From TrEMBL:
Top-rank taxon: Eukaryota
Residue stretches making up the CHCH domain: 31-65
Source organism: Phlebiopsis gigantea (strain 11061_1 CR5-6) (White-rot fungus)
Family recorded in the similarity comment: Belongs to the COX19 family.
Name recorded for this polypeptide: CHCH domain-containing protein
The keyword Disulfide bond appears for this protein: yes
Composition bias, Low complexity: 86-109
GO annotations of cellular component type: mitochondrial intermembrane space
This protein's UniProt keywords: Cytoplasm, Disulfide bond
Length: 109
C-alpha cells in the first residue's frame, strides 16, 4: 500500500500563484474595524449586500491602502456605481454628525 500523493500529481506538478480575489490574511488586524462594521451590516440585513456596499468599499479600500491586496479599479470589483460615496480614509465611527444647517455668511442668499 502506498501513502502520499497520487502518482499523477507527483510528476509535472508546479505551484501556481493564487487566483484573482485571493489575498493575504490581515494578521495584525489593520482593517478589522472595517470588516466588523461590514459583517454587522450583512447580519442586520439578512446577508443582503446591497445596503452594505459602501461599507464593503471602505473595507477593500483599507486593504488596498495597507498593502493587503493589489490596488484595482472599483469597476473591476463591482463597486463603481455607488451613489455619491467616497471611501472613508479613517476608521469607521459609531456616531454620525448630521450636516450643519447653518448658512455660510460669505455666500449671498
Amino acid at each position: 500500500m502506498s501513502f502520499g500523493r497520487p502518482p499523477s500529481i507527483s510528476t509535472g506538478f508546479s505551484p501556481a500563484p493564487p487566483d484573482r480575489g485571493s489575498f493575504p490574511l490581515d494578521h495584525y488586524g489593520e482593517c478589522k474595524e472595517y470588516m466588523s462594521v461590514y459583517l454587522d451590516c450583512l447580519r442586520k440585513n439578512s446577508s443582503n449586500s446591497t445596503p452594505c456596499r459602501p461599507l464593503n468599499r471602505n473595507y477593500l479600500d483599507c486593504r488596498m491602502n495597507k498593502g493587503l491586496m493589489d490596488r484595482d479599479d472599483w469597476k473591476n470589483l463591482g463597486l463603481s456605481n455607488l451613489a455619491g460615496d467616497t471611501p472613508k480614509s479613517g476608521p469607521p465611527t459609531s456616531t454620525s454628525n448630521p450636516p450643519s444647517s447653518q448658512t455660510d455668511p460669505s455666500k449671498p442668499s
